[in-house]
Amino acid sequence: MQLQVLKIRQKNINFFVTAIKASELLHFISVDYWREDNPGGYQRPITQRRLMKAVKYLLYEDGIFPTSILVNVRGKVDFRPACSLDGFGELGVLTIPEESLPLWIIDGQHRVYAIFLAMKEDSQFEDFAIPISILTFDNRYQEMKQFYIVNNRQKAVSTGLAQQHLRQMISKEGIDEVLSHEIRKKVIAAEVLPIVDILRTEESSPWYGKVWMPSSATKSKNWIISQTSLADSLGMMMRKFTEKECNEIKKDIKTYALHLINYWNALKEIFPEAFESPQDYTIQKTIGCYAFHLIFPEIYRLCKKRNDLSKEEMKSILNEMFEAFKNSIGLEKMDSKFWNKWVGNNMATGGGMKMIKKLADLFLEAMPDI
To answer: Could you state, in order of their start, the residue ranges of all structural domains in the chain?
Structure first.
C-alpha cells in the first residue's frame, strides 16, 4: 500500500495525513472490538441507529465527512520524504507492507461503515475521498489509550467501555500513574472489575448472567444492572475499607468475591421472591445494589471478628439487622414486598444517591454491635 502523505510530528509522535478512496480503504481496515473473549480490544459495538443516520446524511443531505478518520498501523512502515514544508512537516510517500496491515480504526468507524453502506446504494461513493490520519504505534495498547483519550475526554463513550480501558491502563502502568491523570472514583471502579467478573460468571452467584456488558449494543431482558453501576457500587464499597483492608482484599480477589457471593446468597434466602423476579424488584437494581455494598464492609468486619464468613453467618447478621430496622421505622414486616418497584417502601423505590445513602445509614444503625 503506497500513499502520498504529509508527515507531521507533535511532541515525540509522528503521524501521516492523507486521503484514501472508499473502495480502496474497504480492503485494508479492521476494528478491534472489546469483547469478553477479546479483553485487549477497545472499540465499542456499532450503533445501528447512529450508522443509519450517517448513511441517510450521505445519501440525501450534504453528505460530506471533512474530519479525518484516525487509524493505526501496528507493523513497520517506510516513509520517503520528497520536500519539507517550512519546518512543520514533510511531503512524501508512505509505504505500508502487506504484513503491517490492516489499518486499525481508532476513531471514525461509524463514518467509515456509513460510506461503505452508501457505496451499495450509489456507486459514486466508491470514489469518495476519506481523510485519514495514520499513527504507527506498534501495539494495540497504545491504540486503546488514544481511543480512550479521544472518546472519553473529547466526546461520549460508554462508561462501561471506559472502565475497561482504565482497567488495561492500571494493569499496564500501575494504579498510581493512572491516578495522576484520572479521577479516583473512576479508577477505583475500574480496579474492581475483576470482582465484577467473578460475580457475573460464577454460577452460584445471584448476579450470574444478569450484568449488561459494554460489548453488547442491545440490552437483554435477562440483564438487571450494567457493568458500570455494579462496578461503581463496588468502588463505593471499597472506599469504606481502610487502606490495610483494601491491600488484604487485593491479595486474594477471588476469595473476597466469593464472600460477596455468600452475602448476596444470604440476601436471596431472606428475600426469595425479589430474586426470583428481579425485574419487578429493586434489590438487585441500583438502589439495592448500592445500599447493600455500602454496608458490606461492616458485615465483613463483624464476620471476620467472629471468624465465620459463611453464608449462614451473614444471613444471621442480616436477619438481626432487618429486625432492628423494621422496628426502627415501624414496619409490620420486612420481606420482599419492601423491594417491590410497584408497591414497595418509598425508601426502596425512590431514586437518587441521597435516598440510597439514607437507606444504607438506617441499615448501619440497625447493625448488631461489633
So the answer is: 2-154, 192-365
Q: What are phi and psi of 266, to 5 degrees?
A: -65, -45
Cis preceding-peptide flag for 206 (omega within 30 of 0): no
- Round to whole Å and give the CA distance between 287 and 35: 28
Q: Which of 359, 356, 300 is nearest to 334 (CA)?
A: 359
Cβ contacts of 124 within 8 Å, gap of 6 or more: none
171, 193 contact by CB (below 8 A): no
pTM exceeds 0.90, yes or no: no
Give me the residues paired with residue 93 across strands. Answer: 4, 80
Q: How far is CA 151 from CA 47, 107, 161, in A?
A: 15, 8, 10
User: What whole-number distance in Å separates Cα of residue 266 and Cα of residue 279?
Assistant: 19
Specify the pairing of strand 225-226 against strand 211-212.
parallel
Read off the pLDDT of residues 64-74 as tens digits, 9 standing for 90 and up. Answer: 999 999 999 99
3-state secondary structure string across 2-15: EEEEEEEEECCEEE
Which residues does 127 contact at the CB level (< 8 Å), separation at least 6? Answer: 21, 22, 23
Q: pLDDT tens-digit profile of 132-152?
A: 999 999 888 999 988 888 877
